[in-house]
Amino acid sequence: MVEEVRNYCIVHFSPLEKYPPIVNFLRYLDDHIDKKTIIHVLTLHPGKNRDLVEIGNIRIHRLIRWSDDLTRSQRLFLYFQFNCLSLRFLLNHKPIAVMYYETLSAGGPCIYKLLRPNRCRLFIHYHEYMSPKEYKQGMVINRWLHNLERLLYARAEWISHTNETREQLFTNDIGIKKKLSTYTLPNYPSGNWYTIASKVNRNNRPEIGFVYVGALSMHTMFTKEMALFISNNVGKCYWDIYSDNCEAEVMSFLKELAAPNISFKESVSYNTLPQILPRYDIGVILYKGDTPNYAYNAPNKFFEYSAAGLTVWFPPGMKGMMPYEQQEKKPFVLCVEFDNLTLPSESEARRIEQLPAQMYLAENVYSRLWEKINKK
């Protein structure tokens, strides 16, 4: 008897290139699927002059091109168009399981599930947590899609958030009496990070090396406080920033500050981070935690810093980081007041030479998800 081809689809509205966790998951799938398994991914094109992620046998379909110059009405139409195109794709290809990421991706998968209730299994993951207040005050289309997905929560076989606190907040918000199939799916880096990072030497500089990777804001982050601290310690420390998502106000501030020990490196490929991060001593997380999404968050950059053997600094507002605090041995994970920073001694700050075994492995969490999706 010839085994039938198993057809799956993942819907991820935002460009894959901006979300390392989904790229890690797709690479995991590519390593674990056989010739009888087809995985389609529906997403946006990241825009001109952007490198595209391509992953082995994973079939990536970029339905529409994103542009940062879109007007509000054009963005609204793009959201609507993407969900219509994803529904058409699903109806044409008839996958037996669909997984979508975030509410903006929900339209096609949810309507497809309603149309084929017994022939499609539904899986959902949220990179971010949105409170009822944020849904209410946000975009109309996001509210409409959220009302739609709420109809399907009880029928979904998997609904995940990145940590247990977010999962519990979500469950409380929904208020459905029937127990939902909720899980946690943390943003861990893949296991090869340790292999790569353990071969990288710290920068040959006497000063303490700070590093930050990711978006920068003057309003939701302690960017100003961190920059002023570094600029007041010329000759004792330096700070390298890797970002392709930086508010104009941040760039203006850094230019005016003109600190000789702060370098803006722009963005680098996610795959090169395990070769870059171990060159430093301390990785910083700057979110103020002024919304539930940021407050109850252990961001992927924490696990990436950790895999590189760096000490990590995070602010008190990030309650989601408290379970990871480590003050007893290197690599330290420290809660610090960014508006009252003091420079640690060189010996205390210097990166540990022998990296500890990687604790947080993407493969460990993805195996459980794939096992559920691929059950026969």
Features:
2 domains; 376 residues; single chain; seven-stranded parallel beta sheet; 13 strands; Rossmann fold; six-stranded parallel beta sheet; alpha/beta
Task: Describe, in plain words, how this protein is organized in 3D.
The protein is an alpha/beta fold. It folds into 2 domains: 6-188 and 362-373, Rossmann fold; 192-349, Glycogen Phosphorylase B (Rossmann fold), CATH 3.40.50. Helices cover 34% and strands 17% of the residues. The chain starts with 5 loop residues before the first strand and ends with a helix. The model has no long low-confidence stretch (mean pLDDT 93).
- CATH top level class name of the largest domain: Alpha Beta
Structural class: alpha/beta
How are the strands ordered across the major sheet?
3-2-1-4-5-6-7
Q: What is the CATH topology descriptor of the largest domain?
A: Rossmann fold
Provide a count of the helices. Answer: 14
